[in-house]
Amino acid sequence: MPLVEVTLSEGREPAAIRALIHEVHAAVERSLGAPAQSIRVIVREVPRTHWAAGDETLAERDSRGG
Ligand SMILES: O=C(O)C/C=C/C(=O)C(=O)O
């Protein structure tokens, strides 16, 4: 059972996330030949206040216009 997990920061439109799921599913099906019903795609969204790069959260980066 192939399982692909994608971690994103919060803020994308639901339709964009749904499109991502579709594309990841299709890539796994095509590349591995896995049966469609066996494929799992999990998208996790992390609040931008809970994701830091270089000790600056993405929310802080947003605030300073970075
Ligand atoms: O685009 C996202 O969902 C996550 C972005 C992360 C960064 O920009 C970073 O880690 O620097």
TrEMBL record:
It holds the Pfam family Tautomerase. Transmembrane segments: none annotated. It is an enzyme of class 5 (isomerase). InterPro entries: 4-OT-like_dom (IPR004370), Tautomerase/MIF_sf (IPR014347). One of its GO terms (molecular function) is isomerase activity. Residues 2-60 form the 4-oxalocrotonate tautomerase-like domain. Belongs to the 4-oxalocrotonate tautomerase family. This is 4-oxalocrotonate tautomerase.
